[in-house]
User: Fold these one by one.
Assistant:
Number 1:
Amino acid sequence: MTDYKLEDFLADENFQQWALAEEPLEGSRWQRASETSPAVAALVQEARQILIDWKRESSGLTDEKKLHAIEKILDQAKAPRRTRLVFWKRPVYWAAAVVVLAGGFTAWLVSEQKSERRYQYETLTSAVAEITEVKNTGTQIKNVVLPDQSKIQLAPGARISYAAMDSGGRFRDVWLDGEAFFEVVRIPSKPFRVRVNKILTTVLGTSFRISNNADQVSVTVTSGKVSVQEKLNDRHEKTGEVILLPNEKAVYHVTDGKLTRSLADAPEALQEVPDLDFEETPLPEILDKLQRVYGIQFEYDREQFRGCLMTIPLNGLPFYGKLDLISTTTKITYKVEGNKILITGNGCSQ
């Protein structure tokens, strides 16, 4: 058996092309190599996954930034300068650099994104004359009450700044770096706004959670109505706006600037939960009741499932747990499509 090493695959241009193909060619030399032993198969799989991860994580970077990332990590590893210069003579060897970067590049990328997040926060708040900042330097949730009596649960490591709310301004403005849950007091004449990175969230009175991670900003609504938009400059110009209702979520992707809407990760009941244990009940009636309880719309062919009678206990299960149990009991599948759930299938098992 050939004594393969990880770098043998990563530095091979033909292997790179094979590994990054949408459908790697069957019967290739790499597949045949994998079949020689479990150890080689594991190496091939590891090398392929590293290349895929590298391509995905570095897709938004310029060549200059990629080189900067490599140089910085190699400097920390005290790699000889001459080695680095030879290494970079041909772009094909970027992939081989992943041997060094498999852990280092991801750490560097997250660090750079966190630095950018802090920069955005500090740039936005520096333009405000009178501002108050609250930081959570502990390991537990920090409860904050704003001058308007709105409440904030500030996650560990997060911080907020807010402008004077008793002035004659049109808005109640808060800036966030990190994650927090907001319960906003309703004042129709003075909307409440939260600025995170390039995202501006505007509400009258509601409860919602904002999470500002290294690669995305997410806003999840618990009650009320929330407007989420990408703010491009100080004139409040925007490229798009998403209106969120309870159990809906908007996600702003930092790398590509896309703002998308979907359902919350864990939808909660919006009213007192009735008895959800059913006996010989048509599926459309079950879905109607779930729609009323959670405020989430189901799209499906009612006539197709009208004769589908179900005896099923749904009490005590989370929302998606209920759907999973319905799905496994019947011949249906469900798919989250934006802020709706699509139901498809050919009927129920007998």
Number 2:
Amino acid sequence: MKNKKSSIENKVVSLVFAISFTALLLTSLVAAISIQNITKENDRVTMEMSTQAADKSRLALEKITCDELEALAISKKNQIDILFDGFERELLIFSGAVTEIYVPPVEETTDTEESVDGTVGETASLLSISKLLDSMAENNNDKNERKFFFGTESGILMTVGDESAFSSGADFDPRASEWYSYAKENGGFTVSGLDEHGYVRGSMLTCSMPVYGKDGGLIGVVRMDVNIDDFLDSLESSGSDKTNYMVVSSEEKIVFVNDEWRERYSTMGEFLAKNKNDDLHSKLFTRESGSEYIDVGDQQIFASHDYIDDMDWVVVAYVVLDDTLAPSVQIRDGILDFAEKSVVEVKRHSLLLLFMVFGISIIVLLMAFICGTAFARRITGPLKTLTEKVKHVDAEKIKFDCVIDTDDEISDLADAFRNMTDELEKNIAKIKVESKEREKRHAEYNIAKQIQLSVLPTNFREFSNAMEFEVSATIQPAKGVGGDFYDYFKVDKDHIAIIIADVSGKGVPAALFMMISKILMDTRTKSGISTGEILGEVNRQLCINNDVGMFVTAFLGILDIRTGKLQYSNAGHTPPLIYRYKKGFSWLNVTKNLFLAGMEDTEYATDEIQLTPGDMLLLYTDGVTEAKDKDNNQFTKERLIDVVNGFSAEHMTLDEIIACIKEEIDIFVGSAPQTDDITMLAARYYS
């Protein structure tokens, strides 16, 4: 036994030592390989991170720049819209005043006096308009420089300043000018673009609007020239130092640009032609808004453009990408410098980790050897005790009283084995008691079944052959054996009795009570009294000393085979079915009476019915109609009559009819257990 104990200890110690040594070897190998892989992976990841960070910073800056440029383009567009709304309001005021003042010339007529008066009226109104122009010029001194004109439909051009107040002739005819024709055609406020031979310093913008008389007819066009440089000064106040913008006219002239490009390109067309960006040219002058990359020499420009409907201008906001994205380059350089320092630190920490793993593994190996030895000895002691105690457990002595207090799985095993033997001892005793009870119930079941079956007649064919009458019956006892029974016998040479009954309760008491009930009904039936009187006498006898409180439901019928007259009584039993030849089944009308053994003084009614050859009776107990499926649904009387009326009863034997009904019940019940006796009796009258 000593060698065996030592062998267990050696196995445990060897296993622990082998596992620890293998762990040390594998850990060291993994650590060495990991240092090299970590260094390489660190270099790769660092470069990827630096590249990704630079790309993301560039994309972020580009996104911010794009949003800023789009906002700037929209802002400049809105500012220009506001300025031109003001210009339009000034022209509306001017045109309204002219409408009130101006008197158009009278067309040539033979009436000389009327012609002179018309000319004098127009001249007077023109003098009033001239004064209006002078007044507007004086009021405009402190504002953006304006210059106002009025051209009449009769060909007169009016203005202020160095030019004469009245100008006429082919050289001064306003009707031939672009600004006059645009306003007349459009019928409203019109901007005719830049006028490169302007009247004041720099370029001038011409705004015009038609003037209609009180009768709705056109009397002329008012015009206002605006100094481009003055009104665009306000647009230079927004945008960052790296964000620029320009305003481009529909003639592809650069209206305004806020950096040195004004001197380099005189028109947008020249700029686009030199930079060969047909796509941007198409988008700028087809009224599309968006953002574009443009290569200008050795620089790349990012531009956002928005269209101004009233002016037919395009606002273009742009930045030089090299200047804007300079911070992303600085970020990339910083990340690369940080990555180099990270590689050095990772290598140093990896070497330190390797030395730590070696040291810890050696310590763990020593501790594993010591602990393994102690653990092996701790296991073998309690196991030896448990083994010795188990050997003394046998069939004669199941009790196991060993207690091992090691506070581990071995202690649990001992407790479990002790509990198992205790439970086993209890179960053996319980099984013995249950076995005796089961044997007793089985014996009672066999006795009750023998009693029940022994009193039931089975001579169907012999009885039918001797009479002008056919009978067949069946009973399928439930597991607990109830008190169902049936009977048929010859009362005398001309009368036949048929009985079906159901005794309450189960087992031997029900079987004995059934036997008593059957004997009483058999003997009283042969006394020659009516069926109601027979059941009354049987009831009085059963009520005597009925301490157990059992009762019987029954149907009793006596048939006169000479005449076919059936006398019957029902004592709380399920109503039979009657079959009329070739007419089908229906419920037999019965008078409702109390069951037998209920009340001693109960009287039972007697009913009669006339049978004809081929008619048939179907008697049954409640085990038929109350048969249940797995969902606790009953077979029911309604289903029973539907089933039998589906037969061709006149072509079937009684055995076949009963068998078909039983088959339908079995299909309905399925796998559900039978809880009550299923009893049926069928009788057919021939003559």
